[in-house]
Design goal:
Two copies of one chain form a homodimer. Chain A is of the alpha+beta class. Helices cover about 20% and strands about 25% of the residues of chain A.
Chain lengths: ~280, ~280
DNA sequence: AAAATAGTGTCTCTCAGACAATATGTC
DNA sequence: GACATATTGTCTGAGAGACACTATTTT
């Protein structure tokens, strides 16, 4: 049987020097725009460049704990309740010029939050619209599908990028990591109720639809979406209340819901317009 | 606010000593049974216990490359064409008694292959039925749902576990990793054509159905499955040939197919009998 | 009053699953 | 010949998407 001889002499130094970090792709929706939390690096390498919050995993610290710690450390404030899951691990040699670094990326969904504050090791921190990052197409996410009529607040506030003067080139392979995180998020909205994590504790069906439309960058039929959401068991549950007023531009008051207890959506809400066939 | 106790100038040696390993969950189907490739450890810790093939990532070695190297090293032969993808990363402090070890687990799908050979650091290597591992329920995977009528070769060869005299207790947290891998595999069969990776280059629809039935541990309706598979664009394509003979117990010759060029199945083949609702 | 939005009803088409039927093999 | 399997056909019900319609509220 297995012997757990801890007494075995073991010398870590015979193994290659590597470091393990965590990086966190935190997504939220601000003013109808999907944004990711970035920090401006205050130390080399890539000093001054924008990057995902992250850093070295400490001894005796679990990976999710490290992710949460880095998030609060580098943005100067607790981000409240959020969904956090592991995304993937990136370890291509040379991805960090200092040494071999294996980065365990995480994905977080957060409701709309106030502007972050630069913390340790960060010169600045900001919510940056993912559309401004020029991500490679994950689904149909062209850099900025401008003509397609982006939902909500057209002509709203200028991209935060401009306020921060950030470059579109992110540090390390973080552009790729964000693209992967966005792909995962889009997929997860289909078969989990995680869209509710982008909303506050109570929300209307229209607000929920706006979340889907923003993340999927697509228009959804209001009526069908409404009926569909209510038909999936455990997706949302009624609070019994309604909003105080109608929408900005008219319309009746909407009923308020909170997240239900389902962990998976049955049946799923499938994305529309998947490209048909291949060569 | 953030404390600046860690704004240390960079020096790799000040960061915790960690090692990074890869582990590989390789699944195949032998005699109608879903099996995972395990090796018997020849070195402490857990010497003599069965574990996933894996080991330390070398300098300047990419993660997938390390996974493939460990696979061939520890099983003494190249496993030919197989599908390999990253599964998840496990890093709970204490999961390895030696030191802090972060393990990047991978998942591989292989067609039926000959018995493996023990290689470096391994006393033995074998295909082990996952049903014998007492995995926690991932979907409806009770340790061994004996009464449910397991497809194919009932009363076939005894489990390899008995031949090898292996314990059901795997080393480290490998039971959990295998459970996660199995869950991923079950899910991937729904929306990707990866089931074909368990088959040879040419296969019949019945053989494909047997793969689904084995991985999902469920019975599928032959007629409906047949029509469904052929209706999904790019899932399979006809070779124009048929088998040389009918089945063991009769029946006409079956047409042979090869894997198509689709990377996703539209529409997906959903698992039957998902448990309805929750409390 | 005009316009926008919430919520419901209806129709059609696709698809999953149950069941049946026929042809073609093996033992 | 008895029986198993491959393949196709038919029917039913669930669900997605297109459209239409009513009620309610804001400007």
């Amino acid at each position: 049987m297995a012997d757990d001889r801890f007494s075995v002499p073991y010398d870590p130094r015979v193994y290659p020097a590597v470091a393990v970090t965590v990086d966190v792709v935190t997504l939220t929706i601000r003013d109808g725009t999907l944004c990711v939390l970035l920090v401006q690096r205050g130390t080399p390498p890539h000093e001054g460049a924008w990057a995902l919050p992250g850093g070295f995993v400490r001894e005796d610290e679990d990976l999710p704990a490290a992710a949460i710690r880095e998030l609060t450390e580098e943005t100067g404030r607790a981000l409240g309740r959020l969904h956090l899951e592991q995304l993937a691990t990136y370890g291509v040699p040379g991805r960090d010029p200092r040494m071999r670094i294996i980065s365990v990326a995480h994905l977080a969904f957060a409701p709309d939050l106030p502007d972050p504050i630069a913390g340790t090791d960060a010169m600045d921190a900001a919510w940056v619209p993912v559309a401004s990052l020029g991500l490679p197409n994950t689904t149909s996410a062209a850099p900025v599908p401008a003509g397609t009529a982006v939902p909500v607040s057209a002509g709203g506030p200028a991209p935060l990028l401009q306020r921060s003067g950030a470059s579109h080139r992110l540090a390390f392979d973080h552009t790729r990591i964000i693209a992967d995180g966005l792909g995962r998020a889009r997929s997860k909205l289909e078969y989990t109720p995680l869209a509710t994590r982008f909303a506050g504790p109570e929300f209307t069906i229209s607000e929920l639809r706006a979340i889907y439309e923003t993340v999927w960058d697509d228009r959804l039929h209001p009526g069908n979406f409404h009926r569909k959401v209510l038909s999936v068991p455990g997706f949302v549950e009624s609070t019994g209340y309604t909003t105080d007023r109608g929408g900005h531009r008219g319309g009746p008051r909407a009923r308020l819901y909170r997240a239900g207890n389902a962990r998976l959506l049955h049946p799923a809400l499938l994305r529309p317009n998947r490209e048909e066939s291949g060569p």
